[in-house]
Amino acid sequence: MKLHDLGVAAAAQAIRKREVSSVDLVSHLHTRAAAMSALGAFLATDTEAALAQARAADERAARGEGGPLNGVPIAHKDIFVTRGLPSTAGSKMLAGYASPFDATVVARLGGGETGDGAAPGAGAVTLGKLNCDEFAMGSANQNSAFQPVRNPWDLSRVPGGSSGGSAAAVAARLLPGATGTDTGGSIRQPASFCGITGIKPTYGVCSRYGMIAFASSLDQAGPMARSAEDCALMLSAMSGFDRRDATSAERPPQDFHAQMLQARPGATAARPLQGLRIGLPREFFPQALAGDVEAAVRAGLAELERLGATLVDVSLPRTELSIPVYYIIAPAEASSNLSRFDGVKFGHRAADHGDLLDMYKKTRAQGFGPEVKRRIMIGTYVLSHGYYDAYYLQAQKLRRMIADDFQACFRDCDLIAGPVAPSVAWKLGDKSDDPVASYLADIFTLPASLAGLPGMSVPCGQGEHGMPVGLQLIGNYFEEGRLLHAAHALQLATDFHGRQPASLDGA
Ligand code: GLN
User: Fold this and answer.
1) Model-level pTM?
2) Residue of the nearest CA to atom 5 in ligand 1?
3) Which of 1, 154, 165, 193 has the CB geometry, 3.0–4.6 Å to 131, for a possible disulfide?
4) What pLDDT is attached to residue 506?
């Protein structure tokens, strides 16, 4: 096995047993990332700093110490602020911005103090910052102000977005795991497009402190890795109550790995999912769903059935409405959150300006890209006097009804399943001049986001052109353990998640 084939769990174990040193792993991955820079996955790296963290981790391992991810190299979506590495959110507005503190998720995964009086972090080594759509707005990672990201399965295709750098890096084995954020699908959809595993937990499970805000009532952090087991280990480290985030869920720390392994009552070795009822919303299998995606999703579902699950028909009647609802609420919140970028407090300031108003105008005109400007304008419009009731308030009411529809489904099933996206990854440039076409492709990820429910993308095969397809699993609130359990059972029985891009064979 090559060093870059080690996943999160395998790397942590090898470092703990001192079979592999974190320093060797970090230098190997650094060389590999440099060789594959054409992917555009990284926005910043600091090898010296990473090697220093790796040396500290190896010393901890030598003393028989260290957290659950001691020495494991990871990298963060550039939406998380980090000390010592630039934090840009993929925007010119924040080019070169240096944060004075680490996001809670970053601190908890890392090897130092977590800064909140809690135990030190899990011990992971930060290799760098990963490319993303500007302020996490996008579904293809073509909205980064710095460079597009390419899909390692086919360099002429998009990796998905907005956590495209994270997905591409993990799929190309530049990293065993990475962080992502998901506001309307940005962990699940790139995971699906790149053939990796990703979970967006219940809203509130991971702290948003230090996550550059897009739409605060939807933004949620989560892990992206090659298996459910790797995601479970990362999620245990990065989650938990944080008094610095007022919407953080007040619960004791969770061991998602133990929850993933918890056997179901009545389960047998051959049928670990015995008795699990999986609901298939009929609206998740519309005419417009690409045939290759449907075939792969059905193949994944057949495996789950073979493992003991029962498939039941359910309905989420307002699935289509989740698109207009999301594309009103998310821009509304974004227009408010992004008002802080005014040339005074952070980042870019126009060099050549007249009075204060002119400075604001020029700074924002220069600093934001076209998609961000579009959303600020939409958001400002739907919140303005006279339109608030017609759009924003109406969207809020529908959001509640979408959440209620899920609760009705969960009376008949334990999990919900369907596709993550209506097609496999598209060609670079496709949909770039048609924002609405890109918004429509978010149809299957938006409902769980609006409801605040946990959702996961699990590889379930390949579609046209050999491109990966993800199966989406959605659970009820705080049922990440149940999602991870089902995904892990599938991954023990199949090798969908073990496949890798042919271009990487022998690399
Ligand atoms: N594609 C969606 C959007 O553009 C979701 C992005 C996200 O989850 N951050 O808003």
Assistant:
1) 0.97
2) 184
3) 165
4) 58
